[in-house]
Design brief:
With 207 residues, the chain is α/β, with parallel strands linked by helices. A six-stranded mixed β-sheet has the order 1-2-3-4-5-6, with helices on one face. A six-stranded mixed β-sheet has the order 7-8-9-10-13-14. Strands 11-12 form a two-stranded antiparallel sheet.
């Protein structure tokens, strides 16, 4: 499987490019900005992008949605609890002194346990509210990888002081949805370096 990270936008979001080597079908996770760089990475692998997934609705994770949807003709997916955030992204970015762009509405909604296919590859959606009400992680069981968005970071967790955040809910989401995965699963967050589930269970200071 093709798995590439492109760091994008003013807040250095990890945008993930996933692709099936056998069929050339791919998807993009968290298109936070710098659409031209993401398109260049897609072209390098010769992928056909059918889906763009947002792990949550914060402005720094959705800024290139519109440009990439227009370019690839793909479908946009986000959890329903975060869908209303998409058309407020520009206003929120300005409140933090940054530029941002509103996103089109989603074509379909993520939900816990939903399986999505791209070519011969498959991922499972894990609804992990706490950073936002609609936050989701994406588990690639065959690859022993999980994309954790802003739910879990290396030696840290997502902030919960923004609207819709809940510290208690986030801790419960991580315990019940992520820490039940095998220890050797690599965890890829929305910002910063990768880690493993086993490392976080043993060393994350929030647990």
């Amino acid at each position: 499987m093709i798995f590439e990270i492109v760091v994008v936008g003013p807040l250095a979001v990890n945008c993930y490019l996933l692709g099936c080597e056998e069929t050339g079908e791919g998807l993009i996770v968290d298109a936070g900005g710098d659409a031209d760089r993401i398109i260049a990475a897609v072209n390098k692998h010769g992928l056909r992008i059918g889906q763009i997934i947002n792990t949550h609705g914060h402005f720094d994770h959705v800024g290139a949605n519109r440009a990439l949807l227009d370019h690839f003709g793909a479908r946009l997916l986000i959890h329903g609890a975060d869908a209303p955030m998409l058309d407020r992204a520009a206003d929120v970015a300005r409140a933090y002194g940054m530029s941002g762009e509103n996103s089109p509405k989603p074509d379909a909604l993520l939900e816990d346990g939903l399986q999505l296919a791209f070519g011969n590859c498959r991922l499972t959606v894990l609804h992990t509210p706490g950073h936002t009400q609609g936050g989701c992680c994406l588990y690639l069981a065959d690859q022993k990888k999980v994309i954790t968005g802003d739910t879990l970071f290396a030696d840290s967790i997502g902030r919960t002081d923004l609207p819709g955040g809940s510290h208690a809910m986030l801790l419960e989401s991580i315990r019940s949805k992520l820490f039940t995965l095998p220890d050797d699963v690599d965890a890829y967050p929305g910002h910063g370096p990768a880690t493993t589930i086993g490392h976080e269970k043993q060393h994350n200071p929030y647990f």
